[in-house]
Design a protein that fits this description.
single chain; 141 residues; mainly alpha; two-stranded parallel ribbon; 7 helices
């Protein structure tokens, strides 16, 4: 729990229901440096910069309006391992994984984040179907 607040001292987000209780995110005890949650102005997603691109990737797996409640953490980890193993123009062709590994390799280990071989990256709902049907063929790392 303390590691979360160490790694995420500031969070900038929209007014989605998942962030409707900032006290739960910010409340981290008396001996831990606090996490502060800030909201973009309503209707101004451009204030979050490139994070909107990740929303587009997520919707390749889980369509808008579908609840995330049915998914376990390992499903999200798998999904983001694939998303973050995709080259980005923003990073001069490097992947988010490569950039984070350079700046903070501890972060990768703590959250069980692994790079997916570029030829094995799956960026659509088939990854979750494959996971549900047969875990043995999925690239976790």
């Amino acid at each position: 729990y303390e590691k979360f607040h160490e790694l995420f001292p500031i969070i900038l987000t929209d007014n989605g229901v998942e962030f409707s209780r900032p006290d739960i995110i910010e409340n981290n005890g008396t001996h831990v440096y606090p996490t502060k949650l800030f909201y973009c102005d309503p209707g101004h997603s451009e204030q979050k910069g490139k994070i909107e691109n990740n929303h587009e990737y997520i919707r390749r797996y889980i369509t808008k309006g579908k609840s995330f409640d049915q998914y376990e953490q390992d499903t999200f980890t798998l999904m983001f391992n694939h998303i973050n193993s995709t080259s980005r123009e923003l990073f001069d062709g490097k992947t988010p994984y490569e950039v984070m590994k350079f700046f903070n390799p501890e972060f990768m280990n703590y959250f069980n984040i692994h790079e997916i071989e570029k030829t094995k990256v799956i960026l659509n709902y088939k990854l979750l179907k494959q996971k549900k049907n047969d875990n043995s063929n999925i690239s976790y790392h």
